[in-house]
Amino acid sequence: MLAGDLYRADDAELAEAALRARQLEERFNRSAADNRAERRAVLEELLGAIGADTEIRPPFYCDYGSHIRMGARVFANCGLVALDVATITIGDDVQIGPNVKLLTPTHPLDPELRLAKWEAADPIVIEQNAWLGGGVIVLPGVTIGENAVVGAGAVVTKDVLPNVVVAGNPARVLKALPPK
C-alpha cells in the first residue's frame, strides 16, 4: 500500500487501523475548544508525527493518521481531509486553509480491478512555508514546493515548484515569488 502497489481496501488489518483512526478522530473532533492539551494528546496518538506548536482545528478527517507527518508550527484550519493511504508529509510553517483535501488514494482504470475493490496510492509532500488556500484539493503523487502559494479552490494535479503562486483547475503558475 505505502509502496504504491495495489491493495485490497477491505483487508482486515487495514480495517482495524481505520477503525482506530475513526475513534481517535471522533475524540479529537468532539473535544472542547478550550482544551488544547487534550487535542494535542489525541493528535500525538493519531498521527505518525506532529511538530511543536502545530495546530489542527476540528473537524479533521483521515484514513489512518499514522501515515501523516506534520512539521513544527503548521496551522490547518477547519475541515482538513488528509486521506493517508500513502504518506502525507507536511513541512514546518505550512499554512492550510479551511476545507482542504489531501488525497493520496488512486483507483485502477481497469473496471474489473475496481469491481474487485483493488486500490493504490501515491504520497503527497508539502514543503516548508507553503500556503494552501481554502478548498484546495491536492491529488496523489504531488509535491508542493517550499514557499509556494496555492490559491483558494485550486485543484493541484502535478508538482508545484518552490516560490510560485498557482491557482485554478487544474492549478497553473500565475507568477514567481522572490526566493526567501
Keywords:
single chain; 180 residues; alpha/beta; UDP N-Acetylglucosamine Acyltransferase, domain 1; 7-stranded mixed β-sheet; 5-stranded parallel β-sheet
Task: Describe what this molecule looks like in 3D.
- The chain is α/β, with parallel strands linked by helices.
- It has one domain (7-176): 3 Solenoid (UDP N-Acetylglucosamine Acyltransferase, domain 1), CATH 2.160.10.
- 19% of the residues lie in helices and 30% in strands.
- Helix 1 runs antiparallel to helix 2 (36-46).
- The radius of gyration is 16 Å and the shape is globular.
- It starts with 6 loop residues before the first strand and ends with a strand.
**What overall geometry do the principal axes of the alpha carbons give?**
globular
Give the tally of structural domains.
1
How many helices? The count is 3
What percent of residues are in strands? 25-35%
Q: Low-confidence runs (pLDDT<50, min 5 residues)?
A: none
- As a percent range, the share of helical residues equals 10-25%
The major beta sheet can be summarized as: 7 strands, mixed
Task: Provide the spatial order of strands within the biggest beta sheet.
Answer: 3-6-9-14-17-19-20
Structural class, judged by helices and strands?
Answer: alpha/beta
The CATH class label is: Mainly Beta
CATH homologous superfamily placement:
Hexapeptide repeat proteins
Just name the CATH architecture. Answer: 3 Solenoid
| Distance, first to last CA | 36 Å
Order of helices and strands: EHHEEEEEEEEEEHEEEEEEEEE
Radius of gyration: 16 Å
The averaged pLDDT comes out at 96
Q: What is the CATH fold-level name?
A: UDP N-Acetylglucosamine Acyltransferase, domain 1
Number of strand segments? 20
